[in-house]
Automatic annotation (TrEMBL):
This is Aminoacetone oxidase family FAD-binding enzyme. The keyword Iron does not apply. Residues 4-384 form the RsdA/BaiN/AoA(So)-like Rossmann fold-like domain. Its cofactor is FAD. PANTHER family: OS12G0638800 PROTEIN. Residues 186-329 form the RsdA/BaiN/AoA(So)-like insert domain. Keywords: FAD, Flavoprotein.
Length: 387
């Protein structure tokens, strides 16, 4: 039996492709025991489907690859995606920050709808079926695992992030074996680790409008201390630029002014916390780093130590050691080079009938629904090509 098409990967991109493409003799191969495992984790289980606003504003949220995927985003925009779900009975809601969720805040409803659409189009699903080989045959068909033959193959296997969900990067060596150019994968949307991290005991403390800079790239936004790394939206969105030995600069309070401690009988930790409206525990760590005793009277603090605390609030500098890895990364930077595909249809330039969609490609978006939007947009673009 020769299948008309086989989808490798039962995640967001693959299922969205299936929702628009008639199966004929069509088969979805899912590596794990059940499809959509990573989709169920998205948005902390609430499924941040996409982002509000104009699709034109999305381009800058994909790093250097944003302009290359413009055709796909415009063809299958956030508005058309929202209409797809709403027309099929899934009510959506937009939060104040622009993130779009199902009104139920339940990712399982999104997955159930996509699976229902795939079944309606006639697709069969085979779970616990990892792909261990992929070959292009002389007759133009493709051979998977030595016995599954298809006229068209849609690779929607994901990247390397959250490998327990099946998105473990195992397809990339197979695609490289076909001669496709692979950009070395690295974690994206991931906490950043630094040398001599000073905030291990302050996990959970956050800043809403910190300025974060990694080498030559900067963002203003949320910053979060974890027990061993920096996180929060600003850090996550810049993590694609991380390189060991790079510089991380953080301005917690960019306009912090030197406080006047003369005559103040409060303890130094309390004085600093009150003066800058920061958590006391954070104030005490800053004082230790400035060589001061948080328990001493504020009035007795040397001006040099007050200046040091103020300087740290304005600009804290660290040497980057790396990231917390694929296990905690929300996305993957790297994958199949975009030069290998037509970015309108996502068909391979080398192998007609081979399509690559979603996170398997070298594109990663900011936090806020941008990665799922690309998964859906690329799935739609490929589906329109095979109709």
């Amino acid at each position: 039996m020769v299948y008309d098409r086989i989808i490798i990967g039962g995640g967001a991109a693959g299922l969205y492709f299936a929702a628009f493409s008639p199966a004929g003799r069509g088969l979805i191969l899912e590596r794990t025991q059940s499809p959509g495992q990573k989709l169920l984790l998205s948005g902390s289980g609430q499924c941040n489907l996409t982002h509000g606003g104009s699709i034109k504003d999305f381009i800058g949220h994909y790093g250097p690859g944003g302009t290359k995927i413009r055709p796909a985003l415009y063809k299958a925009s956030n508005l058309s995606l929202m209409k797809f779900f709403a027309d099929r009975g899934l009510a959506l809601v937009e939060r104040e920050d622009g993130k779009i969720f199902p009104k139920s805040m339940d990712a399982a409803q999104v997955l159930d709808l996509l699976l229902a659409q795939a079944r309606e189009k006639g697709w069969s699903l085979r779970t616990s079926c990892p792909v261990t080989s992929l070959a292009a045959e002389n007759d133009g068909t493709f051979l998977i695992n030595g016995h599954l033959r298809a006229k068209q193959v849609i690779v929607a296997s994901g990247g390397c992030s959250y490998p327990a969900t099946g998105s473990d990067g195992s397809m990339l060596p197979l695609l490289q074996g076909l001669g496709l150019s692979i950009i070395k994968p690295k974690p994206a949307l991931v906490p950043v680790t630094v040398q001599q991290y000073p905030y291990s005991d302050l996990a959970g403390i956050s800043f809403a409008e910190a300025i974060v800079r990694i080498d030559d790239h900067s963002l203003t936004g949320g910053l979060l201390f974890t027990h061993n790394s920096f996180s929060g939206p600003a850090v996550l969105n810049l993590s694609r630029y991380v390189r060991p030995g790079g510089r991380l600069k953080i301005s917690y309070l960019p306009r912090a002014d030197l406080p006047d401690a003369s005559g103040d009988r409060r303890r130094a930790g309390t004085f600093i916390a009150d003066s800058f409206q920061i958590p006391k525990r954070f104030a005490e760590v800053l004082l230790f780093r400035a060589g001061a005793d948080p328990a001493t009277r504020a009035a007795s603090l040397p001006i040099s130590q007050l200046r040091r605390v103020t300087a740290l609030l304005r600009e804290d500098l660290f040497s980057i050691s790396g990231t917390s890895g694929f296990g905690s990364a929300m996305a993957t930077s790297g994958g199949v080079s975009l030069t290998e595909v037509d970015t309108k249809t996502f068909e391979s330039k080398q192998y007609p009938g081979l399509f690559l969609i979603g996170e398997v490609l070298d594109i990663d978006g900011d936090t806020g629904g941008y990665n799922l939007q690309f998964a859906f947009s690329s799935g739609y673009g490929a589906a329109m090509c095979v109709l």
